[in-house]
Amino acid sequence: MTVSSNQQATDPTDVLYGPSVGDFWQLLKPRVMSLVIFTGFAGMFVAPGGMHPMLFCISLFAIAAGAGASGAINQWYDRDIDAVMARTRLRPVPSGAVQPAEALSFGVIVSVLSVLLLGLASNWLAAGLLAFTIFFYGAVYTVWLKRSTPQNIVIGGAAGALPPVIGWAAVTGSLSVEPLLLFAIIFMWTPPHFWALALFRNEDYTRAGVPMMPVVAGEFETRRQILIYALLLAPLAVAPSLIGMAGMGYGILSAALGINFVRLSWVLYRRPDDAAAKRLFAFSILYLFLLFLGLVVDKLVAISGLIVGL
């Protein structure tokens, strides 16, 4: 069941005064954008070479703006299913605070400006990657994958995995195995993270007709897939310390975090309830944050060692 845009609830004050700055801010999906900012920052910070602090900040802002713009386009297209899901029904478009045309225009304008800004502040390789990310999330994932396949999150996860690659390219003007490894970590993290959410939000996705894994394949298969991805992700996250990208401290941290990720996934597999899914979902956010924080701290320790040795 879906709800058309003309069935959206409208606040009379919104009609009278129009959308607020806060409404447009919510179109950018600030919680998602905060993770993009941090992983993009980590990619820039651990990249070899240097960048003027002002250009560094401008480039990071452009990456964040591009991610937010794709979120606005996503909310424009998904306004019908957002309106019937408890988690999303109060978003600016389905609630009537922002009109669909306004959301689309805002998303497209910010997309173009963010790509141009990144190209001018850093280089056009990074800008091209940002443009591809916006297109992939806004068109490939939102328009095509999300409503057509239970692998929507698996394939669509590429968009969320690109910010550290863009950040690396912004500093170096090139790509190498290191940013691709950061991409792979987030890419493998995305399915268990979102499938854990889908397990305790299954009714929402069923009502909206979104073919998430629990809706199409059932909860048991979803829990099995989560465990498989966790087992693959745990050693992958240790890899930066094995290729010389990070030190032993990061290796120990990532191994400990990976063991707990697998443990929580095993608990969910053996005990199928919402509480276990919520625990895994919450930890998955902390897991990714601590992994990338570990990379940043590792680089700071290396820099401090160089300074002391001078």
First and last CA, distance: 66 Å
The profile of the biggest β sheet is:
none
Hey, roughly how much beta strand do the residues contain?
under 5%
Instruction: Extract low-pLDDT stretches.
Output: 1-15
CATH superfamily of the largest domain: UbiA prenyltransferase
Strand-and-helix sequence, N→C?
HHHHHHHHHHHHHHH
* CATH topology description of the largest domain: Tetracycline Repressor, domain 2
Number of domain modules: 2
Which range best describes the helical content: under 10%, 10-25%, 25-40%, 40-55%, 55-70% or over 70%? over 70%
Assign the CATH architecture of the largest domain: Orthogonal Bundle
What is the total tally of β strands? 0
What class, by secondary structure content? Answer: mainly alpha
Radius of gyration from the alpha-carbon trace, in angstroms:
20 Å
| Count, helices | 15
CATH class categorisation of the largest domain: Mainly Alpha
Mean pLDDT: 91
**What gross morphology would you assign?**
flat
